[in-house]
Every structure is written in C-alpha cells, then in structure tokens.
Amino acid sequence: MTDLVRLERNEDIGVIVIDHPPVNALSSAVRQGVIDALETLANDLTLKAGVLTCATRTFVAGADIREFDNPPPGAKTTNDVCRALDQSPKPVVAALFGTALGGGLEIALACHARVISPDGAVGLPEVKIGLLPGAGGTQRLPRLIGALHALDIITSGRHVPAAEALKLGIVDEIGTDHRGLAINRARAMAQTGEMPRVRDLAVPEMDRAAFDKAADAIRKKARGAVAPGEAAASVARALDVPFDDAILAESAAFHALRTGPQSKALRHIFMAERAAGKLPPGIAADTQPWTIRSTGVIGGGTMGAGIAICIADSGLPVTLVEVSDAAVEGARGRIAAVYDRQLKQGRLSEAEHAHRLSRIDFATDVKALADADLVIEAIIENLEAKQDLFRRLSAVVRRDAVLASNTSYLNIELLADVVDNPERVLGLHFFSPAHVMRLLEIVRPKRLAAAGLATALALAKRIRKQPVIAGVCDGFIGNRLFAHWRLQTDFALEDGALPHEVDAALEAWGLAMGPFAVGDLSGLDIGWSNRKRLAPTRNPAARYVPIADWICELGRYGQKTGAGWYLHKDGKREIDPVVTALVEKASAARGITRKPVSAERIQLRVLAAMANEGAKILGEGIASRPSDIDVTLVHGYGFPAWRGGPMHAADAVGLETILAAVRDMYAESGPGLEPAPLLEQLVATGQNFASLNR
Ligand code: 3HC
C-alpha cells in the first residue's frame, strides 16, 4: 500500500480509504495502493468484505490529469484496478460522496454495489477533456442502466445528482452516512454471498434504431470535436462485442485520444480555467477577500437584469436601481421572463422560483444602495454618464463598498478618479446574456487593492462565472482580440470571398456560427465599424473590391428591407442572391473578376491576427499569461474549446507560420497589424506561448 491509500478496519469489514487531496485523483500511486489494499483484503481471513471510499471532500474525481502527458512507464492502469475488483473474492461496496467522476465512477462501477450521500453526484466527464471513459465506463454503464441513458451521460459529461443516479440504477442506496451504509451493505452481502459483477450483466433490451439516431445526432452536434463520436462508438460496442474485446477497443480509443491534439487542447483549457481563477503573480495567494453580503445593480436593461439574476441565483440579495418607475417595471419584466421560462421548463421549482425573485428588490434612487457591499453599474456605455454616476455613488455608499463597472471598453481608471477611495473601483465585464455566458472579465485598474481583486475572484466563484483578470485598455482582453478577428473577416470580403464562404471556413474550423451569420441576427450595418477603427490604410493593391463600396450598400439594403446576408429556408441558410448580385455589380463596374479566397487562408489569418494581438496584450501586461487569453476567447466568444484558445492554437500551427502570416497582413493592411515584439522574440528564440504559462 502507498501513503495515499490505507486499509481501516470496522470489525470484519476492511475500509479502503483513498487520501489524495484535493480531489483524490487516481494517480499511478493511488491505483497501486488500491490494488495492494484489495490484495490485503482478499488474504486477510478476519475480513469478510470491503468498502471503497475516500478521505477529505470528495470521492475520486477521476484519473490524475497531470499524469496524462507523461504516464509513468509500467504503472498499473485504472482498468487494472477494475480487474482487481472483478477478481476480488469478497464483495466490495463503493461509498460515494462529493463528485465521483471519470475513473472514480469507473472503479465504483466495478464494485459490487454503490451507495451515495444525498448531496453527491456521479458522472463520466471525459469528453469534456477530449477523451472517452477509458476504464470500462462505456461498457459497464450501459449494462447497468441501458445504452441510451449511458450514451447521454457519457457523451454529455454531465454530473448526475444522487437522486437521479438512484432512479437510473447507477447507485443502490442514498444516505447521509454513506460510509456506515456501505459497511452495513458489505456485511450483508458477505453473509448472503451475493456478489453481482456489472460486467456479467446483459445490456438491457432496447430500440437499436433509436440508439443509432441518437449517436448520429451527437456526432453532428460535436462540431469537429472527436471525443463525443468516439465515445458513442464505444458505447455501441457494448451492444455488439463481448465485454473483454470491447474493453480492449475502449482502451485503444482512449489512448489515441489522449495523445491527440484535441484532448491536449482541452486539458490545457481545464488547467487554464483553474489558473485564471487564482490571484495573479505579485499578489499574496492568501490575500483575504472583503465580505459581500448585500449588492446593488444600477441599470435594468438586458445586461443589468442578467447580472441581477446571476447574483440572485447565487443566494445573495440584490437591489436593482433604475431611473423611473416605468424603467423598474421594464427590468422587473425582463427578470420575471427569465425565471418564468426556467419554471416552465422544469429547471426551477415553484419554491425556488419564488425565492430567487424575492432576493431582488427594485428602487429608483441610488440612496437605496447606502448599505450595499458591492455595486455594479450597467448603464449606457458613455464615460461622462458613468463618471457622473460614480460621483453620486461615492457620496451615498459606504467608503469600503466595492464599486464596479460593467463597461466593455471604457477606461476604468477615469471612473476611479472621481470617487472617494479609488482602491475599491474595478471592472466586472459580463457577457450577454449575463445569466448564461460563463465568462467574467475582472478589470484591474492600477489603484485597485489586492483585497478588492480577491473579492472579485471570490464573487466570480460564488456566482459560478469563469473569471479572467485583465488590465485596463480599450476592449480589455476579449473585445480587443475579437475586434481583430472581425477585422480579418471583413478583409476576407475585400479580398474576394463572399460572406457565406467566410462563415463556412470558420464554421469548418470549429466556430459555432460564422461572423456574418451572427451579423445577420443583429443587422447588416453592424461589424463594419472595426475596420474603420483599426486599420484605416489598407494597401489598395491587396484588395479585390474596396469593401466600403458594397458593404455599405448592403447595409442600407439590409436596413431598408430588414434582410440580412442570408435567406432561411426549411431550417437551412442560403446566401441571399441580392448579395451576390451586388458584389458582381461592384466587380463589373471595375472590370475585375472575383478571386476566390481559400478557407485555409481565412482560417490562418484570423488566428494569426488574434495571436499577434494576444502577444501585444501580454507584452503590455494586460493579461498575465497566454492561457488567460485562451480562457477568455473560449468562454466569451465561442472559440472552439477543442482548439484550446487562440494562443494554444497558434502554438499548434507553429509561431513561425503565424509570424509570416502577420507580416503579410501588415504589408497589406498597415497600422494596427504590426508584428508584436513578443511574437518576434518567441520565434527568434524558438519558444512558444505555452512557455509563458505559469
Ligand atoms: N486530476 C488532477 N487534478 C485534478 C483533477 C484530476 N482529475 N480534478 C481536479 N483537479 C485539481 C484541480 O486542478 C485543482 O487543482 P489546484 O487547486 O492546484 O488548482 C483542484 O483539483 C481542485 O479542483 P477545482 O478547482 O476544479 O475544484 P472544484 O471543487 O471547483 O471542482 C471537480 C471539483 C468537480 C472535481 C472538478 O475539478 C472537475 O471537474 N475535475 C475534473 C474531473 C474529470 O475530468 N475527471 C475525469 C478525468 S479523466 C479519467 O478519469 C480517465 C478515466 O476514464 C481512465
């Protein structure tokens, strides 16, 4: 046995306890320890049965992700642990609590019974890090609960709460004293000699056509991510192939995914998310946050209402301030609409619906915020209006109340200037819809107190947002990079691509929706502003058609007719022939023939422009590490997580290729696209962005 696993005794029951904080990840040492403990259990004549459980806060949350890049050679696998359980001459009951995930649930499935605490959950989240369950999960779960339920759980990676796990048959019993229950059950099983092995069960009869249809839908929905399709194929083997053969195939698929680029990218994002939630270098890690008990939101438009919902969802009270009774009614309606929909969809109980609404008060005077610990403003995007509000707030709220702005571009230093005690002013940039989007950019002005930053991180955790800390600049991290992304897609039109070709190139690359399809939803005239703002002097020789000539015409056409780039027919999207006709007209007027632009060129240029701007952001100290930029783009802008974010994706392409593309773009487009000194330096020294992650 290793230090990480011990065998405790409860009379004739051996309790195997894994003690590997923080989440009892199954490292090679833990796997060896469990195998050794099972051997001791088997050989000790005074022990009749076993229990498998954990110390600290959770049952095993999965295999140890940190070992995936370099697995220790010759180490026992999680499959070896499951095999030892299958071969155990004595029954073993798993006592689950916290989150029994991945390899954790897989070893529990190889036990002879499972009990769980009422607030526990189980799941096989491997697809979220680009893998499939690699220790029998795709074979044992379908045998236990049927292939369709298993398919849903495995390909969604969702956490299944204890009550549902019991209903489905994943666990046998729920109880607060999970360890006591497991000991009693193990003792009873030893007495009856009952030792069911999940591997011996037949997969319950099912409608095969329904399964195949569901598996197809999962592949389509994955948008380029390979793991969900591989996982579905592995579950299908439970229906077609004997257990041991299917386990071998599952294992081979797991290792192929583990060493492939998508899982590496998703593991990078997993680690990056956790790094982004920590205090940055230079601030003591034990800095204590200020206490937040009461909050205020100013402005009840889409953003303000969404922010109030996030806060109320977390259990904190919030007072929403609007300018008039009529505006209060508007905000109240927006909030009620969201909660009513959740009630109707069965996502909220009647009681919870009432609780959440009751946590939100409304007022028409900022004086109502006199006692608030935190105030977030979400009024119009206008510096003078925000400064005026901060001045008024400063006169009303306590001197230690945190004052936050939800601005997406403005200079927060200028808001700190107008208040008493500027150390408590910061940006909390939510993304629309605020109650849905996970990203929260925490914008850190120079004077912000360390405890203020710690408070923002603690708040993000409480309201279940993914925080990223950014310095003050125009657009912070996310919008600054996104502007460059959009600019390149507009340039692709100038170069001769049609809007639907640009969308298709980026959707093929993994984006949920191309930029012009998104623009279609918000109006044709939007999106054009970046081009004017960021790169005013494009080399005319590089252009096919000056974009202004026809994009504005299209904008006018769109505004006039309400039409967009696309026509929508039978759920399909088709380019509006008016668009192509206008482009052809503009070309004919100049006597030029349109040159198609390859999808690869569009994809490379968009990525290179983002990576270059990201390098500038790093050079200026706006982001602490490349991985923070990756988290921002993945959680706020629909960047495909399986590409690992723009900085990771740029590393994957190779920074030399990225720099060469940036130099070409700069030659064509001028100011704004200068190669970033940091990018040049990394290329010159043969390093990559990953080398800067800490
Ligand atoms: N391996 C190694 N470290 C892990 C880990 C894992 N599987 N899961 C979590 N950790 C670490 C985190 O990196 C973090 O470390 P840090 O404190 O140094 O930053 C620490 O544990 C705490 O994690 P969180 O900050 O995420 O804590 P939360 O309480 O918010 O969440 C959790 C806990 C729900 C367990 C969440 O961490 C999680 O979802 N973990 C990943 C679970 C997972 O993907 N399991 C499958 C692994 S693959 C597998 O099992 C293969 C098998 O099929 C063979």
Description:
With 694 residues, this protein is α/β, with parallel strands linked by helices. The chain has three domains: 5-258, 2-enoyl-CoA Hydratase, Chain A, domain 1 (Alpha-Beta Complex); 295-472, Rossmann fold, CATH 3.40.50.720; 474-694, N-(1-d-carboxylethyl)-l-norvaline Dehydrogenase, domain 2 (Orthogonal Bundle). The protein is 49% helix and 12% strand. The chain is built from 28 helices and 19 strands. The strands form four sheets. It has an eight-stranded mixed beta sheet with strand order 12-11-10-13-14-15-16-17, with helices on both faces. Strand 15 (425-430) and strand 16 (439-444) form a beta hairpin. Helix 1 (28-43) packs parallel to helix 2 (78-86), helix 5 (147-156) runs antiparallel to helix 9 and helix 18 packs antiparallel against helix 24. 49% of the residues are buried. Residues 525-531 have low confidence and may be disordered. The site of 3-hydroxybutanoyl-coenzyme A has 24 residues, from strand 5 and helix 3.
Write the layout of secondary structure elements.
Layout (H helix, E strand, L loop, with lengths): L4 E6 L2 E6 L9 H16 L5 E6 L23 H9 L5 E5 L2 E3 L1 H8 L2 E4 L4 E3 L13 H9 L1 H10 L3 E2 H7 L4 E2 L3 H15 L15 H14 L5 H14 L2 H16 L2 H16 L18 E4 L3 H12 L4 E4 L3 H20 L5 H9 L1 E4 L10 E4 L5 H14 L5 E4 L7 H4 L8 E6 L8 E6 L5 H13 L3 E6 L6 H18 L3 H11 L5 H8 L6 H6 L12 H15 L4 E4 L2 E4 L1 H14 L8 H21 L6 H12 L7 H9 L1 H15 L7 H8 L10
The protein binds 3-hydroxybutanoyl-coenzyme A.
The site of 3-hydroxybutanoyl-coenzyme A has 24 residues, from strand 5 and helix 3.
Strand content: 5-15%
Give the full name of the CATH homologous superfamily of the largest domain.
2-enoyl-CoA Hydratase, Chain A, domain 1
Average pLDDT taken over every residue: 93
Bound ligands, each once? 3-hydroxybutanoyl-coenzyme A
Number of helical stretches of at least 4 residues: 28
Return the CATH class of the largest domain. Answer: Alpha Beta
Radius of gyration: 28 Å
Protein structure class: alpha/beta
Percentage of helical residues? 40-55%
Shape: globular
Largest pleated sheet: 8 strands, mixed
CATH architecture of the largest domain: Alpha-Beta Complex
How many beta-strand runs?
19
What fold name stands as the CATH topology of the largest domain? Answer: 2-enoyl-CoA Hydratase, Chain A, domain 1
Strand order of the largest sheet: 12-11-10-13-14-15-16-17
